[in-house]
Design a protein that fits this description.
alpha/beta; Rossmann fold; about 40% helix; 3-stranded antiparallel sheet; 6-stranded parallel sheet
Amino acid sequence: MTDFTDDTPLPLSPYRVLDLTRVRAGPTAVRQLADWGARVIKIETPDSAGGDGGLGGPRDGPDFQNLHRNKRGMTLNLKEAAGRATMLDLVRQADVVVENYRPDVKERLGIDWPALSTTNPRIILASISGFGQDGPYRERPGVDQIAQGLGGLMSITGDPDAPPMRVGIPTADLTAGLLAAQGILMALLARGQTGKGQWIRTSLLQAQTFMLDFQAARWLVEGEVAGRVGNQHPTSVPTNAYETADGHINVAAVGDRIYARFCDCIGAPELAQDPDFATGGKRYRNRAALNDRIAVILKTRVSADWIDWLNAAGVPCGPINSIDQTFADPQVRHLEMARKVADDGPDLTLVAQPIQVGDHDPALRHRMGAKGADTDDILAEIGYDAARIAALRDGGII
């Protein structure tokens, strides 16, 4: 199968990445590298050794393909000495290894940082865990929803009089993956100066806590513990999802000037003059009364009218789309956020990269193939002959 190099190499095309990840956080990190040209080898456990537990959904399903596009794949049983030796041979010719095992697992397998850096001092190891590589929760199994709860996000998500609510996407997983990819890029830059690899670590808990952002700063600086405010912004009023004559819209009338324009646009200039709502602080303290008055007005017109009028007046406003409506939106279509995989298989459309880097096009070059489809080719590239490959297969190592 193709090694994904072409006549116009992408920024990461010089680098070879060994992908030991599964589920979501790790694959998210590696997807960033693969889409931008890195030569990724996804390593999975052979079915003869128990496979990978079915994590990640069906191989030909949308989730698996969206996470693992632009990769080649091989199988390798790391629980056996021959599998570990083969892994270290791969490491000798690689630039990056990415894994999201529990911290103790890679130590038991003999592929932790001391082992890999001894094998290849230029290697970069990126490790994503649930709660960190050390500390009291080190060996706990970590999944996104647990991190959302432990990391404070669920306490500020949902309506004030409702139970805590998880966010509708695995935000801890996704953020940890993106931060790991950023760490890998920084380590590659540093290696260009020092010639040495580094161990990059992040976790779902660190990522989720970091993403509390201003809500965390409210506590750390002011001692204020944020609560749930539903669709309203925690501090900027009026920012809310409002009912219209035919649905709902988002409005963000932030700051005094935009708020005044908003009041004029909805035909209620008196709201800008009302002493109870004249400043941001007063609007924050009197948000319930202000929202009640706005709600009555916005129910009188259809969503499209308000969206057109408010945006024309410079007031941020938009629809609340379902996912199919999002991908039908003219701006989303213009940005080409849905892209077809360019290989010769059946039509497959996946989520595109959201970053533009000069004239580079991070195309979706190839879907993930059958498990282990590239094993022989990959081992041949690092110098294994046909007899050695056959022996590994006979021994259940690949």
